[in-house]
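Hello Y.,

Per our agreement to keep a running log of every chain we model this quarter, I'm adding this entry. I've kept the format consistent with earlier entries: sequence first, then predicted structure.
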Amino acid sequence: MSTAAVAKSLGVSRRTLMRWVDQLDLQLTKNELGHYQFSDEDIEKIKQMQETPESASPQPKEQPRKGIVMSVSVDEDKTVELTNRIEELERKLQTKADDVVSYQLLQHRKEMEELIGTINKLEHRIEELESAQNRPEFSKDPALVFDHGQASKKPRRKGLISSILGF
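Predicted structure for the entry above:
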């Protein structure tokens, strides 16, 4: 019989039927489609489980619930070993974090030194430009250099025709 047919004959859902199969640890066969097939013996075992009181049937494993404290026996050696491993991992993690921070600080220091070098070069160049601006510059036009004093003017020669005619 199929799962649906057995569940219907017992008056339970398919999920309840499959939970009972797990509790009874029944080895069911499957058909070519992969569906469970129940034999008459399997159905009888399930009916017996259904008819017996709750206390006689195997109980499913209880899942721990939130807010419920369960007492568990713990091997002290394993606890110590796990604690030591956790502490070692925390030390490694802290060391790695310290290494990363140190590397970042060195990178920042290098960048700062490069910026300071650039600033010093710029300051030096500004000083050079300011000092060049304050120096008097000599004019590059030679005509202007000699304009400071009065040059003696040569008398102008009269044209040849005017000198002959006497104008």
